[in-house]
Write a structure and sequence with these properties.
The protein is of the alpha+beta class. 58% of the residues lie in helices and 14% in strands. It is built from ten helices and seven strands. Helix 6 packs antiparallel against helix 7 and helix 6 packs parallel to helix 9. The radius of gyration is 36 Å and the shape is rod-shaped.
């Protein structure tokens, strides 16, 4: 579906105009949004817009790395938006020209919808295509924060383990969270590079007049990037703590089992010694030999138990 907005020379807002009329008409600026377009609508990128085939190819091949490409009549942006529920990333492509902005996305975009609502409600005379670009990028980046905070809450819950989950379940959740952070990092770092390139380029003269706004978005990306890195370090610390605890717990079990085995070693020796079927073993014919052997075995077991307990081997 294609949506369009245009500001004419009288600063009036017009909607739902055809792409052909917008390209051929004399407007202050216009915005065309390709929202989950079909093949017939995608063809309009070729004509009447006449965008470069490489830009169109990037639009059709989903999840390109965020980047910025400069062409003769427009600038092409590849950006990533994130679904706050699934943390899946979707691609939002932007064509920015002298008097137009074109957005292209294969999935419904809450950021595009929010900026449209702002444009329809606010004073349109103050808006330009560069304002739309700024608002889109600002909404994209702002929507990263809830995802990072959600991951932080998940890590805190994993660390505290209030529901007493098993070690295996906690490690599964931890590695899943770490994978989310890695996926988020693959989006945020290129977006940070893109904004850095925008505020330091000389090819976007109109943006340089509003550099402080894009610098603010860049600062937000820096903060998000630092949060991601700190959370990744936290996942490593939690993982190492769990593995160390698990190793310590296993060592304690092995130590207790070793102590028990050590106690039974002399008892097993005595039982094996007097379990042999030799004829000339005088102790076998003693009247109280059996009870004496039991007393010796119990004494050895109790004595070794007391000795090991005093040494703290059962703590």
């Amino acid at each position: 579906m294609i949506h369009s907005l245009a500001i004419n020379k009288k600063k009036q807002l017009l909607t739902d105009l055809s792409v052909e009329d917008l390209v051929a008409g004399d407007y202050e600026w216009f915005w065309v949004d390709f929202d989950q377009p079909i093949d017939e609508e995608i063809e309009k990128l070729h004509h009447p817009f006449n965008f470069h085939p490489l830009s169109i190819e990037d639009c059709l091949h989903n999840l390109q790395r965020p980047k910025i490409d400069y062409f003769e009549t427009y600038t092409f942006f590849v950006t990533h938006c994130l679904n706050p529920k699934t943390v899946k990333k979707d691609e939002l492509n932007i064509f920015l020209g002298k008097n137009f902005i074109v957005t292209f996305h294969h999935h419904a975009s809450v950021e595009v919808h929010a900026v449209k609502e702002m444009l329809l409600k606010e004073e349109t005379a103050a808006w330009t295509q560069y304002t739309v670009l700024y608002q889109l990028l600002d909404h994209l980046v702002d929507n990263y924060f809830p995802i990072v905070y959600q991951i932080e809450d998940s890590l805190a819950e994993i660390d505290e383990n209030p529901t007493n989950k098993t070690m295996e379940a906690l490690l599964d959740e931890l590695f899943s969270t770490r994978h989310q952070l890695l996926s988020l990092r693959h989006t945020v770092v290129p977006m940070k590079d893109l904004l850095h390139q925008m505020i330091n380029t000389e090819k976007l003269a109109a943006l340089l007049m509003k550099r402080e706004y894009y610098s603010d978005i860049y600062d937000h990306l820096l903060k998000i990037s630092e949060l991601i890195e700190s959370n990744r370090e936290l996942t490593t610390d939690i993982r190492d703590s769990y593995l160390s605890y698990n190793s310590h717990h296993s060592n304690r079990i092995m130590q207790i089992l070793t102590v028990i085995t050590t106690i039974f070693m002399p008892l097993s020796f005595l039982a094996g010694l007097y379990g042999m079927n030799f004829l000339n073993m005088p102790e076998l014919h003693w009247k109280y030999g059996y009870f004496l052997l039991l007393f010796v075995m119990v004494s050895i077991g109790v004595g070794m138990f007391i000795l090991f307990k005093r040494k703290g081997w059962f703590k």
